[in-house]
Amino acid sequence: MKGFTGVFVLLFWASCLYAQQVDIKIPAHDPVMIKQGDTYYLFCTGFGITVYSSNDMKTWKRRKSVFSKPPDWAVKAVPGFRGHVWAPDISFHNGKYYLYYAVSAFGKNTSCIGVAVNNTLDSASADYEWKDLGKVIQSVPGRDLWNAIDPNLIVDEDNTPWLVFGSFWEGMKLVKLNADLATVAQPEVWRTVARRQRNFSVTDSSAGDAAIEGPFIFKKDKYYYLFVSWDYCCRAEKSDYKVVVGRSERVTGPYIDKTGKSMVMGGGSLVLEGDNKLWYGAGHNSAYTFNEKDYIIYHGYDAQDKGRSKLMIRELNWSDGWPKVAVQ
After folding, report:
1. From the candidates 30, 144, 273, 302, which is the catalytic residue?
2. CA–CA separation, 246 and 145 (whole Å)
3. Is 56 in the active site?
4. Residue 114: beta bridge partners?
5. pLDDT tens digits for 55-104?
6. Given strand 223-230, what is the order of strands in its sheet?
7. Which residue ranges form the domains of the chain, and what is each CATH number?
8. Per annotation, catalytic residue among 213, 240, 257, 273
9. pLDDT digits over 9-48, tens only?
10. Does residue 213 carry a catalytic annotation?
11. How do residues 138-175 score in pLDDT, each as one tens digit?
12. Residue 203 to residue 88: CA distance in whole angstroms
């Protein structure tokens, strides 16, 4: 029995050491990242929004979730919502951290985007407290041919805030926000910035077959780069998720791919995809500059672990004004 216990303890510590030595093996879905001081914070889809922290982007520690219980407004807005929050987006503006997030019925556009704010991401600080500001955008079946999930905030060169979002239906939408970053500017103008051909024989309350989601806009030099994910996530070894991109000199588009095709017309140049050997489909990315290097953050489906979703971090290189994922 003592021998068995010793082996068990040895294996336990070996597994812990292994977990600390790799940077892409922690469970993660729809990851976004930000740095405060010397600490990186990762926010992911999960109950209450999953949070990790790291000092080197390699060793990650699980932190307390953002929400201890589902926001009351979200429970009322989305029947059946029990607290599994999707696709967060984190950024720092006006002296606060803004965390956008989505709540939705699966496969339907009964969806909302909310936002919460905090003065700090350090949970040990006396100033640490997430304040939920509630709903920003809502989509309703039968009324909207778009889906209010997968938000990303981008502030343009004129300091105007925009929210890009969407999944399936009629593609990715862009809308201007007010300076409070919590309400839509009036008059409301909803721009389509990327889409794929949809089979209109399906109803407007069905996601359809135009598989596009996860928009993220990254500014580099004179261009805004719109990353989106094509095809299907969340299917383990059957996942064929991939990331494509287009660029524009204006945040409102049009976003054009390498061939000159507009993303509104189904354009998009491939950035990354799974290899079906180490990883199945990979996507739902975000992009950042840390310490003068550009990174793409995304999740992939681990072929060595039953297709479970894991964190992936790669350096972004650039060639002729287009992003290229560095090989590691």
Report:
1. 30
2. 23
3. no
4. 101, 135
5. 999 999 999 999 999 999 999 999 999 999 999 999 999 999 999 999 99
6. 212-220, 223-230, 242-248, 269-273
7. 27-325 (2.115.10.20)
8. 213
9. 333 333 333 333 334 579 999 999 999 999 999 999 999 9
10. yes
11. 999 888 989 999 999 999 999 999 999 999 888 999 99
12. 28
